[in-house]
Amino acid sequence: MEFLPQYATITVQIVTEVINGWQQGSDMTRDMEVVRKILLGMEARENDDSPIEVGECDEATFYFHVWLMSEAELITVMDGRTRADPNRLYPRHITWKGYDFLDSARSESVWRETLSKIGSAVGTVAFSVLLESLKDATMRKLGLR
Predict the structure, then answer these.
(1) What is the pLDDT of residues 94-127, one digit of tens each?
(2) Backbone phi, then psi, for 76, in 5-degree steps?
(3) InterPro entries this protein is in (predicted)?
């Protein structure tokens, strides 16, 4: 039982180091293009250990978004973080919620149309608003609205 508080302290220190590293290293912001590319890449890979193709994306941005996606329950991850390498969260599986988003964002035309409308109106929106907008655009494309 004495191990638990020490383990919790180490975990908090690692997470704090990761967040501080991202904050100090660059201007990390959520980029829904990166989220979509990671989900598409995860779906396209042959197995859980295959690399994920995301195009132009540096390592820090990739792992930052994997962490955000895990927090949002879009994906599950395998934790490979250490004190020496605090950014390693390996994407394992897309969750039900992740597939809901991916299915709504899969169509390039729906994706571009939705981002264009949001960008011209307000710039950025909450994830839930983006998801609902994508669902609405998909329903219109299918002739269901």
Answers:
(1) 999 999 999 999 999 999 999 988 877 766 788 9
(2) -105, 155
(3) DUF2513 (IPR019650)
Cα angle for residues 22, 28, 29 (degrees, 5° grid): 145
Tell me which residue of 74, 84, 86 sits closest to 34, measured CA to CA.
74
87: Cβ–Cβ under 8 A, 6 or more apart, which residues?
18, 21, 59, 60, 63, 64, 81
38 to each of 20, 34, 63, 64, 113, how far by Cα in Å?
23, 6, 10, 12, 20
- Residue 77 per-residue DSSP state: E
> 83 is written with which tokens?
């004190």
Minimal CA–CA distance to 98: which of 78, 69, 124, 77? Answer: 69
Query: Which residues lie across from 94 on neighbouring strands?
Result: 75
Whole-model pTM: value is 0.75
- Is the sign of the CA dihedral 117, 32, 47, 93 positive or negative? negative
